[in-house]
Design goal:
alpha/beta; Carbamate kinase; four-stranded mixed sheet; 12 strands; 28% strand; globular; acetylglutamate kinase activity; AceGlu_kinase-like_sf
Length: 176
């Protein structure tokens, strides 16, 4: 998936490179008992990312981590990997793409879209979210807890949503 995304970015004129969180030693994780080769990020080393950014290359990072206990790599939930990396950049805003316009208080009521909410308020609302949105909410809260300034959840199927997010609008903004 990473090479495909990097290639699409290259075709759009963005200098991008696919890397692995394991081979580039960006993500370090411990295994989650009972889930086989699935892990939880324990540490992020952004030096490989910084080297690419200094060369004006956008890294597309596969969510595979170095297993801190040794052995082969561990698979990481992509949203949680992005949250951990975003948290390593204290003034960052993470953009999470999903298949809906943002976080809703009462899904599927489209009028219940939350435009802006604090991480504290979102934590209080967490019990109301269904399975589909819960991993996004967890990743959002983890990114902010790790140090990200904010997270914007947008509809990745809407062609204009990413551009709007880069301009600071659209979707749901969750702030520290």
């Amino acid at each position: 998936m990473g090479p495909e995304v990097a290639n699409k970015l290259l075709l759009a004129g963005v200098n991008a490179q696919a890397i692995s969180g394991k081979q580039s030693e960006v993500l370090f994780a411990e295994g989650i008992v009972g889930l086989g080769k699935v892990g939880r990020v324990m540490r992020v080393d952004v030096s490989s990312i910084d080297q690419l950014l200094e060369q004006r290359i956008v890294p597309v990072i596969a969510p595979i981590a170095v297993d801190v206990a040794g052995g082969t790599g561990l698979n990481i939930n992509a949203d949680l990997a992005a949250a951990a990396i975003s948290g390593a950049y204290p003034d960052s805003t993470l953009i999470i793409m999903t298949d809906v316009a943002g976080i809703y208080r009462k899904w599927p009521d489209k009028s219940s879209l939350i435009a802006r909410i604090s991480a504290h308020e979102l934590e209080q609302l967490k019990p109301i979210f269904a399975d589909g949105m819960l991993p996004k909410v967890d990743a959002t809260l983890e990114a902010i807890a790790a140090g990200a300034q904010s997270v914007r959840i947008i509809d990745g199927t809407d062609d204009g949503s990413f551009a709007a997010a880069l301009e600071g609008s659209g979707g749901t903004l969750v702030y520290a």
